[in-house]
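User: Here's a chain of 518 residues. Predict its fold as tokens.
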Amino acid sequence: MKLLLLIPILLVSIATSARQASTLERAFITLDSIADNYDNLLAERLKDIEQHKKSINNSDISEYLIIARSYIGVNMDSAFHYASICYERAIAADSIALAYRAQIARAGILSTTHKYIDAEDIFKSIDLNTLDDSTRVIYYITISDLYLDYMLLTAENDSHNKFTDQSITALSAVESLSPEGSPTRRLARAQIDYLTGNYTIAVGELIDLLDYFVDNKITYSRISNMIALYYKNNPAKRDEYIYYLTIAASNELLGMSTRPIGLAKLAKEAYNDGYIDNAAKYIKIAQKVIKNSDTFIFGNELFNVSTQINEAIEAQYKHYNTISNVCIIILICTVIALIIILIVKQRRTRSHIEGNKVLNDSVATRELYINQLLNICSSMVEGMEDFSRMAGRKLKAGQAMDLYDMIESGKFLQEQLERFFVVFDAAILRIFPNFQAELNQMFQPDKQITSVGIDKLNPEQRIVAFMRLGVTESHRIAKFLGLSLNTVYTYRNRTKSRAIDRENFENDIRNIGKNTYS
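Assistant: Prediction complete.
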């Protein structure tokens, strides 16, 4: 009976775990999509700002403050510039409330870009007694957000405790000035509870408040980061920790945050879990955000994680280089063995009557094959040497991310393929001088292949060349030529469709060049 009672509990537990896994997976898919599209998001934001600037109504001074806020996280100099224009024009128009709001925005921008003394001077210059309640709320929210971010970035130390105390002071003011039951007041109270150690009550309220701030990406990400911090030290809640870091990171990017705290922490977790590619992607975008917002304090916090990831990429490169060298050696040995087998087979099938002549021709053919093989191998080795020297220079210069981009983009592989094609084409046309002419003889007169050069083959001709060398498997040809399997199938079928004798086409290919050595 007890066992029967446990079954529903187990089923509920399994279903809950599956839902959590599915939710986390969706969160990662969303983040990766946003991360991959970050440059486009940035470009769209700039485009929207430019359109807004063209349609600005000079009689409405507050438009300048809207533009200033739009520039935050995109171009901090422009953000400060437009906030300053708003301040100056508001003063000239005797619009004191708007002038104070512009001043608060300027102070927030300066503090973000590590100009703390200037920011503090502006905050001190504001006479709180002259502000209306809504402007005072903005004043204290700006300060509390600033200190909350610093608190989330620092470890448990004197600075962390100082930022916590300053956050509580500012949040208490926000709570007292906000309407009873409003999301702003509830958020301030939840954050105070969190900072004073009432975690269970605070996190429950913060989770409930997320829906109210879904359109405010920066606040949404800050709440998510606080929830994630709560789950961080509980191994049984690691999925929740990673989930809230992930949605925090997504909203940081969507909101053009100046401090991508969730993204950097997620990069560190990905690195610790061995997902180096993901860690590198997140750190790279976090560094872009830092560059745009000139967030000095965050740059320091990020440095150690970035260094660790760069070192991991360097280790991956060394591993990749070792594997590549081993593959080259195996490839050389395989080709040499294949050539030897072909030569032995050729010698055994020669007529005894033509013994001496065949022997001489075999030696000449063997020397030609080996000479062209060495040319191919030499080109590949030179390519690896060039890449090793280039990688060494970039790693020495601290440009591991550039090296990673080059490998990830496939640029290096494409360069080596082009180098290989040059040497391979020359080798084929040296071994089989009449290769192109003999191939065209197999085709219908109106479907012959036009040569792309006296010493160059096109992709279809290269595929035929590999078939002539005995490499008939499409997947192997695709690997050699850097093509997809479907592309190789398409080329093979198209080439065969040109043939006069389709039934014996592949056998005819194997006979290309035989008259040269007969």
